[in-house]
């Protein structure tokens, strides 16, 4: 039976999802996600929509700070017949009595020395000053259930700072995967699974190459095949 195409509206001039979102979604689905789950900085809603597509019983919540994204999320949820609780809020100021089993995010991780755009929507979606790493991890920790799991991706060169930030909040890194554009380049991204209140060892997964010998890798081709996405301008 052919998989249903997932249709996603995106802002023509704003930040648009890229391969990082697909690689992170694949990583998370392979590791596992269920029960009460929160997608932080949801953007157009791609991560949550992919998770619900593959796990209909997931109780999904999404949060985003930008009104344009909330409109996109509502449209994309409706278009793909997916239910979720939507929060239009700054994650760092977010107040809720609910505790989550899983928190997932493709957070802004560009450093201040990177070239900023004149487009504020893109800047908020890309630069870590809008959601600093330490504050992001601290807030996530505060609303995770005991033994809850935090999934996120980040710039690989900041791996040492990720380790320190997680250690401060007693979140144990339990799985990591480094992502490379190809075999001859430095890792550019790290995928992280961290768990609250556990003492598990950390599993370092095989490296992920987007390209191999200048050709889209088999892993990346498999992801594109797994997630049948069609985007259109909003």
TrEMBL record:
InterPro entries linked: DNA_methylase_N6_adenine_CS, SAM-dependent_MTases_sf, Small_mtfrase_dom, tRNA_Adenine-N(6)_MTase
Keyword field: Methyltransferase, S-adenosyl-L-methionine, Transferase
GO molecular function per UniProt: N-methyltransferase activity; nucleic acid binding; S-adenosylmethionine-dependent methyltransferase activity
GO terms of biological process kind: methylation
Signal sequence range: none
CDD domains tied to this protein: AdoMet_MTases
All copies of domain Methyltransferase small, residue ranges: 31-131
Superkingdom, natural source: Bacteria
Protein name (record): Methyltransferase
Stored PROSITE patterns: N6_MTASE (PS00092)
């Amino acid at each position: 039976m052919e998989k249903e195409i997932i249709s996603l509206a995106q802002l023509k001039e704003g930040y648009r999802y890229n391969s990082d979102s697909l690689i992170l979604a694949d990583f998370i689905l392979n590791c596992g996600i269920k029960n009460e789950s929160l997608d932080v900085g949801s953007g157009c809603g791609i991560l949550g929509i992919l998770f619900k597509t593959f796990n209909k019983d997931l109780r999904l919540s999404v949060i985003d700070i930008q009104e344009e994204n909330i409109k996109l999320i509502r449209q994309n949820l409706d278009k793909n017949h997916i239910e979720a609780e939507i929060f239009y809020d700054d994650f760092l100021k977010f107040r809720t009595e609910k505790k989550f089993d899983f928190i997932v995010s493709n957070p802004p991780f560009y450093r201040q020395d990177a070239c900023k755009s004149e487009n504020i929507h893109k800047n908020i979606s890309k630069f870590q000053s809008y959601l600093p790493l330490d504050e992001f991890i601290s807030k996530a920790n505060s609303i995770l259930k005991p033994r809850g799991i935090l999934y996120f991706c980040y710039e690989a060169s900041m791996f040492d700072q990720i380790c320190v930030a997680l250690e401060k909040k007693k979140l144990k890194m339990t799985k990591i995967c480094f992502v490379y554009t190809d075999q001859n380049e430095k890792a550019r991204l790290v995928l992280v699974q961290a768990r609250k209140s556990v003492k598990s060892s950390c599993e370092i997964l095989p490296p992920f190459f987007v390209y191999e010998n200048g050709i889209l890798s088999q892993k990346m081709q498999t992801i594109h095949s797994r997630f049948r996405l069609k985007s259109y301008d909003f």
